[in-house]
Every structure is written in structure tokens, then in C-alpha cells.
Amino acid sequence: MSAQLTKLLHDRSHRIKDDWVQRLRAKPPRSALADPDILVHRMDETLGQLTVILDRTKTEGAALGKYSLERKLRKVCQCGLNPLLDYFITGDAALSAIFSDLSPVESTAFATAWHGLAHREVESLCGACCRKQANCALVSVSSVSVRRRRVHLSPICGGRFTGDLAKNPVKL
Q: pLDDT tens across 140-168, in order?
């Protein structure tokens, strides 16, 4: 069955990407990296990764659990600033719309592979984020100007200062 699913994915990839782009553009970006014009360039690679997962995974008996992809990903990235959140959530919606004619077993296989890929990618990016040691939902970055030098107060990354003052401290 995985060969059939990968063929379907290949055959419908243009429709998937068109639907996915529309859904992605409908959501306001959460950060500069979440700009749809940037994320669209990842779509071919992401669909390629999904194909590899489908080829290597047993498709029978897969279970998704009771929670939606969005709810699962929000547990991984509590601050909600990961640019891949809406990317994978809208991709999930596009896949569901384009593959609405699949059997329940095929739909489950696609969704399980997609959810696994999304979870891994979001978790990887969050693992590199300096917010991971702080309570993501409550952290904000502020900046002030001191003597024409830009200072970034970064409580997120261990309370260190970044910017000009990190290199050349000014006595106030």
C-alpha cells in the first residue's frame, strides 16, 4: 500500500502545494521566519520527506491518538513563535482536503506519517531556540537605546545582553 500512497502523493503534489500555499497565506505570520514567501520553498523538500516516511513505514494499524496536530504541536512549542507551526498545520489541512477520497486506513497512514514529520521538525527547531529554558509563553524581548547604542535585554538566553553593549559596556 505504501507504493500506492507515494504515487498518489506524487500525482497530487501540485494540487497539495497550491492548496497549502493558499492556507498558509491566509494566516498572519507569527514571526519574520514564518513569512509564507519563505516557507513555500520548503514544500517540495517536506513532501519528499513525507514520501520517504511513507515508503519506510508500515501503514497498517497506525494510531493517531485523540488530539489534533495543532494541539500536539502547541505542546511542543508553548511560545507559539516557531515558524513551522502554521506551516505544518496548514499542510495537514491541505493534505486532508486533497486526500479526502482515501480509505480510513490510507488516511490514517498519511496522517500518521505527516504528524510524525511535523512533530520532529517543530521539536528540532524548538530545541535550538534559546527560549526553551524559559517559560516560552511569558517571555518577551525588549530593547532600549542607551547613548546611541542599541541594547537588547535578553532574559530568554540566560539574562545576557546582546548587541553593542555586550561587546563594549557603558558605565551609566
A: 333 333 333 344 433 444 444 444 444 44
Q: What is the CATH number of domain 2-131?
A: 1.10.490
Task: Name the segment(s) of the chain with CATH classification 1.10.490.
Answer: 2-131
Which candidate, 80, 94, 72, places its Cα nearest to that of 16? 94
CA dist 57 and 51 (Å) reads 10
* Intervals of the chain under pLDDT 50: 60-62, 66, 137-172
Helix residue spans in the chain (DSSP H): 2-11, 13-26, 36-39, 43-56, 69-76, 84-98, 104-128, 164-167
